[in-house]
Protein 1
Amino acid sequence: MEDADEVEKLFDFEVSHISESEKIKLRLKKFCYIIGFLLILWVISIIIIVANNKDDPIQEKTIQKDKYYIMAEKFISNLTSTEIISLLNGINNIQSIKESGQKDLCEGQIGSFGNGNASFKGMCLQEGTTGVLYSNGTGIRWQSEINTAATFNKKLMLKIGKAQGKESKEKGINTLLSPCVNIMRKPKDGVLWESFGDDPFYSGICASEIIKGIQKSGVIAAIKHFLGNDEKEYEILNSSNTDINALMDIYVEPFYRAINDSEVRAIVVGNNTMNHTFCYENEYLLNNILREILNFKGFVISDLCDIYNNHSYNYSLLDLSIRKECAQGTFDKEDKNENFERNYSCWTPSEEEYMKNQTDIKERFKESAKKIIAAMYKMKQMKDYPEVNLFNKAQINETNRRQKLQKDAARESQVLLKNDGILPLETENQRIAVIGNIPLEFHLEYDFETIKSENFISPLPDIENLTKKRNIIVTSSSNLIDDFNNKKKKKYDTSALNKIKNELLNKNLRYDIAIIFITANSIGKYSIIDKNEKKEFDLSLWNGANELIEGIKNDMKVIVVISGPSFDKISWLNEVKAVLFSGFPGEGASLVIAEVLFGKVNPSGHLPFTWAEYNNLDSTISDEKFGKTWNDKFRYDGGDINGLKDARENNGMDNFTYPDGLYIGQRWFNKYNNSNKYIFPFGYGLSYTSFDYSELNLNISEKGLTIEFNVTNVGPRKGQAVPMIFLSFPIENYPKYIFKGFEKVKLDVNETNRVSIFVDDHALSYFNNNKYTRVNNGTIEVYIAENGNITDSTLNLSIEANYKND
């Protein structure tokens, strides 16, 4: 009873028989009891919350700690159901833009709304890989992403991202639909020009730097296309199939980097089918992998207007649907177009669905809306953001700075593939013929998705300007150019070729050198060259270029400049004196190429892919299923509340099984010890100087692997070295010599720099048993090389994978 009396005293301070000091002690005890009681309640509540949320996705637990998400939550709480649904439904305006050319009409758009408690001015989504789409020539004509990748310069990529982001913001663009990180499995890939090559690690690094720059400028970057959007010619009609390890280590890897290194806030989902399920209705891809394993906190967007048979909004797989201008909820069972419009459906979230008495659907729709608004809060777009004006042009000083940056990037993207001592062209008293033209900075943005023969520029003026003081005679009559490109005839013929050959070989004209500019016969999904439109690249050379080079290669010195994202066979490689791979270098292309050829610029670009005859790597088409276990995990069964079925399931869909698995690009050739010989390895690129590497040192820790070494310029010119890190893991049946690091180092003649490259924990991991696993047993082999041909590596050292904490 003493305890009971003590408690009674705690709550009765008016008792007369205790002193004042005792009363104070009792008050302190009372306070302690209350605090203890509240602590017990707090602990119990935490236990209840954890128990109730033990099965929640990782993403749901972390996103609610994001302050921008909290701000979005407050904003959404003031919206009507109609306004919430409007945030999830965008409109594709491409056809309207082409018809009207409106400067305030975005390619993808969420409409504005307002009420007494909240207002929303809308969202503009625009393509911008090489410049703002449909901007009427008011922006910079940036080089393609394959060129940006060829620079191997992370600092430069960050600057490009910042500049593109600022340009987009000035035009009122909220979300820039860039960059693209689909993997180049073969040189015919239809979006190769807007991707970063065939290495998953490198693609992720490039994308992360670009994204950091875009988002630092206050614009949302939307990385694309999730996932496996690598078969452009048959992307909608067939299923691309691969196993889970290849899926994660190759195709997911660039997205992992973008999410964890640069916190990208938006992802565009591919319109393709992967392992028999359309990506945008693939719960395993979008929930289990993207939102849980990768912990993506942003919003997922449909590929503009490309949604086919999408019936999965109960799972909120897409956050933002950009639909064609068609009736909501319709399902077209007729084959409007055998290739691309089969069974098209523009089913989208509706207010009717929202208002149904289903709490889970309502909450899912709200979650999607919150993610969109949270991204806009993070980029400070919810207040005082520029109005949409795609034709807005930057001030002249800013334009000049961006043009300089673009040209600097183009200079660093030029890849010298062959040089038999002829370059740079510095000898005086020469007579040089310039044949052919350069595609006008490959831009679907500036010519409504076409490249016609008249959209080529002559490199002659810039070459003449660089040579006029050197007593070098450069000639190329307009007739020669016209005959070669056939602006009038639109198709080359034998007589035109013979005319060019005869003039070049005319002894009276005494040509010493011929510089021949060539391009592909078709430049992929978004281009038309002389009405030759294809979803994939036609890698044969345009207008008889092969025949011309073959006809003169034995009688004079030939230099070939290649414009294009990649090529397959070049039969004359061994006979010509030099080959420069120019790609699509954007604004100032002619000047940049001339500077490299005549020695004003030392080339420092490197191939971001393996140049090879990919006959063995082309996807195989078969009618076989890929495997029951994999299908069970990935396949959407086609059923939903409306009873709609995937009518394409047995409607002629072929399977594109990826036979290469983990062995993409250089890895394929390393696996067979180069028995299937490539033409040029990954990372290949020559310079007008040379470099030496020495004093390699390794240190491994919990955070990753630090690699240090010296680089010295031992050649006759200042230049930029690109040392590359390749690792071999002690894992059975795993690719050797995996690219895991690089740096670009500027050096004067005889200068030495100590270089440090850090390979982080994730780069030392691989996907195994449904999780990323750090290599922690055995020996890791480290190679320092100038390209993916490891037999020519300059330094090699091994280190134990199992580190000890200091």
Protein 2
Amino acid sequence: MTAPIDLEARDVVRSFGSFRAVEGVSFEIPKGSFFSILGPSGCGKTTLLRMIAGFLEPDAGDILIGGRSMIGVPPNRRPVNLIFQHLALFPMMSVAENIAYGLRRRGVGRTEIRERVKRMLERIGLPGSGDKRIDQLSGGQKQRIAIARCLVLEPTVLLLDEPLGALDLKLREQMKVELKLLQADIGTTFVYITHDQSEALVMSDRVAVMNEGRFEQVDTPQGLYYRPRTAFVAGFVGGSNRWQGSLVAVSGDEARVRTRDGLELVARTSERLVAGQAVDLFVRPEGIALAREEAELGGLANRLTGTVESVLFDGANSRVLVREARTGGEITAALPQTGRFADLGPGQTVHLGWSTVGGLCFGRKQ
């Protein structure tokens, strides 16, 4: 059975003077989803969020929550709540009073408020914390209280505008997991705005990648990473080596590319391309095999030789920067965690290789 749609946008447009911030955006978010809108600063994601919340009206199109159009409905009448990066908790109130604030404004009775606050504190993993002051909480606990203050009002949709941006790295990593588990437990639809791809990929059921006011692709995190549909998505989601060049030949979904600096590389393509066309070619660092001897690369279609410039050690996320011998171009490859390259250092010669399917080719806009 298909889940009902909690939030829908239909060809939404918003301009500021001559600048088009949101250009014909449409999407549907099923009930109980964790949906993220990912994009660089200035791409229009916060403008879109403010239209959903009711702080801005679309110039054209429609926004529906629970199947009802929100055009002309003020923010306080919409079944949504919004959490910003700055949590705006009331320091003069206790934890319980902060969570109860919205319920009191709605005129809910004291007994019901007490029970709902108690249940919400248990659900966010802070039972018995109602009497604490806000300044007694850690950063992560404050995040949970801000979320609880919204969820206790039982909104159809909870909007989150980069709420983890002010946290330190370790706490941010922890909160990504906590938010994902909390949303799955409570079942409220979350719409999360971020420029941090790690946040979007880790937490979301589906992610919309936004660029210059439009959605480039809406997909699962795995779909965006392994099957990007545009050059922007391929370059923005995950790390990639990128070459510009022209298409020498194409056969089915296999493209032979001559890069601007003279390399000939083979890659796959997911769109129709013709010989002579300008293209961008992407290869992820983890798709590149690293070897001390060229023979170790076997039958890989793409092979290059270079000199190690630098080793960027970061545990399982370690990378090696290699200066390619023929062109002098820099290539980033993932450093295997087998221990074979534990002694790798600057100045050493290495061989790089990847398969045809390890590269992805897109036509470039002129």
Protein 3
Amino acid sequence: MQRFFVRNGTFLYFVLISSIFMKKNTELYIGLAVGFVICLIISIIFVFPVFKGKELSQGDITQYKGSAQEIKTYAEQGEQILWTNSMFSGMPAYMVSTKYKGNIFSAVHGFFRTFLPHPVSLIFLMMINFFILLLAMRVDPWLSLGGAVAFAFSTYFIVILAAGHNAKVDAVMWLPGVLAGIYLAYRRNLWIGAAVFGFYLVMELKASHPQMAYYFAFLAIAFVITEAVGLALEGKFFHFAKASALLGLMAMLAIGANWSYLKTTSDYSKYSIRGTSELTANASNKTKGLDRDYVTQWSNGIDETWTLLVPNFKGGESADISKNKTAVKALKPNEKKMLQGNAYFGDQPFTGGPVYVGAGVFLLFLLALFFVKDRLKWPLLAATIFTIMISWGKNFPRFTDFMLDHFPLYDKFRAIISAVIVPEMVFPILAFLGLAYMVANPDFFKKKATLFGAELPLTNHAVFLGISGTLFFILALMWLVPSLFTGFYATGEYQDLIAQLVGMGASEAQAADYAAVLETGRKAIFRADVMRSLIYMLLTAGLVWSFGYFKYSRYILAIGIFLITAVDLLSVNKRYLNENNFVAKNNLFPKSAADAEILRDKDLSYRVLNLSVSPFNDASTSYYHKSIGGYHGAKLKKYQEMIEYGITPEIENMFTVFRAEPTQEKINAALQSSPALNMLNARYLIINPQAGPLVNPYALGNVWFPSTVKWVDNADAEMEQTLANNPGSTAVIDKKFESELGGISLNNNDSVSSIKLTAYHPEKLEYEANAVADKIAVFSEIWYPEGWVCFIDGKETPIGRSNYLLRAVKIPAGQHKIELVFAPRFNEDEKVSLAFSVLLLLVCLGMAGKEAFAYFKANKA
């Protein structure tokens, strides 16, 4: 069955699309065909360098390739491993790169990627799925094509694609189809809607980025509540209940089809940085999940929301402003050499680009709030406002803290700015629903405008002129008096800049001059994009007005809107994804001299700390070695805490030594006083990749017998005592592990007992022990209870925790074979996924087939 879908992965996809539009309408099918072709052409042209043998250079994907190399090596040998030791001293491989084969819908992705290279397939599906959503909402196919462009090229999506957030883009591209299914079920055809919803939801969940589904849920819930009220008032509450029950059933099947992914993610989440900390320090910053400052680190500025209308409202992407032609051109000759700093002046740490929906789309969205009669606009508007408030994060602290403290799962997601995916979906939906209303009502300018269902004493023409004029006035005022709308420094940036320049030897007056030049450059960037948005807004307004006044062909309107939207958005997106983002295919991780020397060490297992990179934000080391560091958005919480309290201070101590003309004696002293690194078996430290590594003689190896145990009452004491003692001689154990590790007296004078690693596999570590008395063995392996089991001479033995994050096992006296085996219930969960995905497939095909049979029977009659 899997092979069938790999070959015919779009079968169900096109069956469902066809079933949505079953009617005798030649123009509709022509529009569908033309739409598919144009979407494909635009997708290819936008990233055409991939057809010249190049590949998109994505920072996150480069990091992923480094972190997944050990997993890939085993996969090439025909084995899928579920645990990798390549980064952060060990973590589940299913959080890095695992194929969930139980869900047969995975083959739909495979089909598109077979004939469309990355990222063409992602952009194409973004466009097509939104095109289908608008068609499901009965928007003219020629207008829907403009909507498809408006959605797919909303800048946030292209910016995250350029950065390498492929899973996020993957998740977003299925959301229009999920909404289409909900809409169809309540409004048009219960069975087709449920089938479409089930298919798109299983694809959305399979994308492995639940944060996108979480934010979309606010929109979906708002729509369902609105439908409940609306259908009840229409006397159709039974239909609402039936549709809701059927959608609920399809949601359960979609969840079941993704069970193996969702279950492993849920199991891991409890122990990751998204879980609850056992430490009590800095309690005000903690939640039951991620820390508050981590959740809100990437928060949209409140005034930065204007980037929906003006892309460079905050300077655009984080980049060297001296390279910006607009900024340089605005300066006097003697000022040009003074221009330095960041073009971006918002409050995010850095950004790859703004959240821009298109000036014309922005205008059409505002008009639709008055022109569209459908109650659909209210949940769309409510969800837009709500998710924009979410995206403000730390800049709207009372709201954010309330949500973090009281709203389920809210504290599990970082980069809170991602909530802007909802307005970037809603703006084009409402914009093109408004256009559809104009097309369907040739005399719409003469009709009375409505608001909240009440007729206003104004015509639509008056409302159009009022909204267009207001937006024109705002943009004109932005251009004339920029300081009314924004400052041109990020919070605290001016003071920091002055202090930095003075510290470099400039006088305060000179520093102020440099700052003024930077402000001038930023104002020039700001004003240029304000004028740009003003032009595209006026072009859109002029086209809509002339259509309403002269009543010419809707095809001219559709083509005009499509061209304005496409030129506007594609040209802005080319700032962030262009020819410079593509590179020739090559080895991303050339082997350095340090790598080569370390790889000569053929011991079964040891770890490497690379200090020539940012060790905990770089996975290049993981490509060749078992790394202390790595790159991942969901590290184990205990490991993150050990980084903060132990490893980072130890690294800082070593750098202090290196900067002060180090001797071997001082280096050894620094290494000896690094308990966290030593217990993690950091045998090699890379200081200069082109030189030999630093060998750490105090690394404790794979496993050892400590001579004493220090029992502590809580995690705070466990962390403190671990870093205050020599882990080689003292095991620090929380009393809650007394049942697994208690009840023995260690022999402090024992020099005969031994334990060593004899065989290495990421999922199975074998040891030989010879103990003259009962012992506690501490393994330089990360404690993770969801799957790791221990066998002593074939008999299962409980695993405890020592030194805050390491595995520990009680070893009886004598000679023993010890095995640590990673055996989660993954295969069983995969069987559940397979069963549910097959059932979902059959149900979807059955629903589509039922409607197809009824359609052909009716037309035959």
Protein 4
Amino acid sequence: MNYEIQRKFLAVQRVRLLLPVAACAAFLIEAVREPQGVGERVLGAALALAFVWAAYYLPNYLGLDADPWRRLYWFSRARWVALFLFAGVALFAGAKTALGAAVVAALLHLLLLRALLKLERRDLRESIPARISALALVYGATDGLLLWLAHRGGASPLLLSELLVWFLFLLAVLLRSRSLVHVIAFGLAAAGLSYFFTAAAAPELGRVVIAAGAFVWTTGTIYLLVAASRHNLANYDDLLENLQAFLGETRESILKILLLSVPTLAENWRRDQPQGQEAVAAWYSANARLYLLANCQHHLLYRHIMYTLGLLRVARGRVLDFGGGNGDFSRALARDGFDTTYLDVPGDAARYVKWRAEREGLPLKVTHDKNTLQAPYDVVFCLDVVEHLVDLPPIFELFRQLLRPGGKLLATYYNGPTSSAPMHIDPGYDALAFLLTHGFRNVKSKVVGIFSPELMHKNHFMILEKEPG
């Protein structure tokens, strides 16, 4: 993963965001001019503002992913929200038939969920199964009927248009759109149907503004999704090519391990149940290939990319990446000019880091031995590592010794085991509280601002500074 490429791509995405934001401004103006009740005006304005966030966040969140079916789980939840909003619009208008149809649509969605979510994990390059296309047709027909009934029942034209563009976006997510043809088709459908819904209730100028807003938001937001999906495929192909070259195996064999790496790791941990730090370290070395592939696919995620870019802005001088996993972050630090040391247990992950650093000509130090670390460091990163360690006090004391006075420790700490990660070990005490009484002070509020990546805001993410003396 080259984070400079990710940084440039996301900067371009922010420029592309200007069109959907302009469409939201048009919706907001029309909400103020809404001739119907206060409730419709408030809901119309709220949806217009929500669409700004949706266009900013969702295309990248759903497009930059390792698992093509993760977005289906998001779709299943988002559809409940869409149906709830539709029921509210129908209720405002007193459209009883549309309200009853919304209940039927909710029951239909409940029935279709089993077919929607019971899918095997697949290669991102594979086309979507026929059943997903069939489901999209069913959902599209259902949405069209709902909107028509609400229109017949006198619902607000603006609210219908806003619901329309949201339904169309959901369909694009379901179909995993990657084509510009899809972008234009969805945009034309949004414009044409919006113009139809406003035919009897809005002046000509209002009809044009709403139809144009629907076209611009739909095409702009779905294009952002398409661009993110294409960029994700480039990241995905680059990862597989590097893994093929490093492991000397076929794409198919690597994919087989990659797609099952997370559940296999969980199964192996439950089976082996290692006890004590030496046994845990040996277990991670034995499962290093699985852990390497699990980390690699996790690093494709939008939230993780944003998180890493945020962390890079905090780095200074000499840096230690303690428990550096697949080494994407260590290589990014070295690429940005920091004197970087990577430390982790021996195995495929550490060999992969060294192999990639040498191929890229990066001056990255790779070690497995804590005794070889050369203090002082300006920053120590310990990301998603603490919950995998048995005896923490010696590690925390090591960090204190390695950091110069005023140096920073950025670490995540125990937040509980999950079904996919049962290997998280409870230390029996709060790591943050412990460190605050052992030579560190909390400086997170000085570093993490309102625009910092969301993962840096999480309670189990800490930024501490070594106290002088």
